[in-house]
Amino acid sequence: MNESGFNKLYWGFLFTMLSFRLQGFDILPDVVGYLFFAAGFRNLISSSNYFSIAAKYNIPMIILSVFSFYQGPIQGGGIHLGPLGIFSIPFAIAYFVLNLLIVYNLFMGIKDMAEKRGQPDLVTESDEKWNQFKLLQIAAICSFIFIFIPLLGVLYIIGILVISIIVTIGILGFIKRCNESLNTLK
Known about the structure:
Elements: H1 2-17, E1 21-22, E2 25-26, H2 30-44, H3 49-66, H4 88-116, H5 120-146, H6 150-184
Antiparallel strand pairs: 1-2
Helix pairs in contact: 1-2, 1-6, 2-3, 3-4, 4-5, 5-6
């Protein structure tokens, strides 16, 4: 049961952390990632109460993520709020906060499982991965400040992209290790 749950969390992270757009359509839609999370939480809910909490935050995120499936190409310069206009701002804030709450509870659920099974290395790494994810999300939000400084903005966004890839690979590797370590002990 845990193995299936961790596999679903792995795929959930893959879909939610990577974004490839073709003609405005997300090739790896976030909504699919949040559906994988939902299935993973359902499998792991008996292992930690944190997965139950994450599952509750995940429900509205499934709905919100449907709206990010398509983003039309931006025409011209300047700041564009998208089809929702001024309502894009609270939408983006809700998206950001819910995503942090889901991932926080996910990592704390893994930490809880690792503590119960005597896996101190996974306990420490769970905290590290949560902090890396949190800092990456904050850095991505701060990129809006740097877009007004052309050269610095480009360098900052390239840096965020590289760090995002590194963090994503690290999280995916961590989920695989959890799958192996937390399933061998009963």
